[in-house]
Design goal:
The longest helix is centred in the middle third of the chain and has 16 residues. This protein has about 190 residues and is an alpha/beta fold. About 35% of the residues lie in helices and about 20% in strands. Strands 1-3-4-2-5-6-7 form a 7-stranded mixed beta sheet, with helices on both faces. The chain contains 5 helices and 7 strands; from the N terminus they run ββαββαβαβαβα. The chain has a single domain, classed as P-loop containing nucleotide triphosphate hydrolases (Rossmann fold, 3-Layer(aba) Sandwich), CATH 3.40.50. Bound molecules: guanosine-5'-diphosphate and magnesium ion. The site of guanosine-5'-diphosphate has 21 residues, from helix 1.
């Protein structure tokens, strides 16, 4: 069964977990460092240019944004690890992310985004470790693949699989610019939700 993506619409934005809507649908959430490409991926998946706000300056999404698509929810979580905001603001974002996962929701799939160009960062390792400990279903998506040659992509895939200790089958190389990997991610979303 395929998701009817043309149904995608922005649902609401929340600055506190106490405001989140009832968990009455399957949810697919997107986590990763700020600027890793969460909003761009979300837009590409649903085939819309600007459903989720993309920013060239990191750290803009300090809210949890919900999108409704054909009976499921896509959840754009705040990016972690943005250094140029105050300690208090960083704490607030971290509380939003952990508060979301502490709720009793339908965590059908967590899409964990990691920039394919770099080594795994401490916060990426922490996030993956957390997902494993909580036994949440997740897939690791390596973003911005268009910035590397195919050969470099394969090298980074092997390196990051080792560093994050994730099987290669659970990693998808993707580019929101070229569309590489997008069908695979959609398939994972559909398998997890439908
Ligand atoms: N080349 C390239 N740039 C990307 C890709 N995905 C995101 N970007 C750029 O990275 C920046 C941050 O993207 P955004 O989606 O806002 O990241 P977010 O903070 O994780 O939501 C923007 O300038 C995007 O245009 C990609 O696949 N390829
Ligand atoms: Mg964003």
């Amino acid at each position: 069964m395929a998701l009817r993506l043309e149904d995608a619409r922005f649902e609401a934005s929340f600055g506190a977990v106490s405001q989140l809507p009832e968990p009455n649908t399957p949810e697919v959430c997107f986590v990763g460092r700020s600027n890793v490409g969460k909003s761009s991926l979300l837009n590409r998946l649903v085939g819309r240019k600007a459903l989720a706000k993309v920013s060239s300056k990191p750290g803009k999404t300090a809210n949890i944004n919900f999108f409704a698509v054909d009976g499921i929810r896509l959840v754009d979580l705040p990016g972690y690890g943005y250094a140029k905001v105050s300690e208090a603001e960083r704490r607030r974002w971290a509380d939003l992310i952990s508060g979301y996962f502490e709720q009793e929701r339908s965590f059908n799939l967590v899409v964990a985004l990691v920039d394919i160009r770099h080594e795994a960062q401490a916060l990426d390792l922490q996030m993956i470790e957390f997902l494993r400990e909580e036994e949440l279903p997740f897939v690791v998506v390596l973003t911005k693949a268009d910035k590397l040659s195919k050969a470099r992509q394969q090298k980074q895939l092997a390196l990051l699989a080792r560093q994050l200790d994730v099987a290669r089958e659970d990693m998808i190389v993707c580019s929101s610019e070229t569309g590489q990997g997008i069908h695979e991610i959609l398939r994972a979303v559909e398998e997890a939700c439908l």
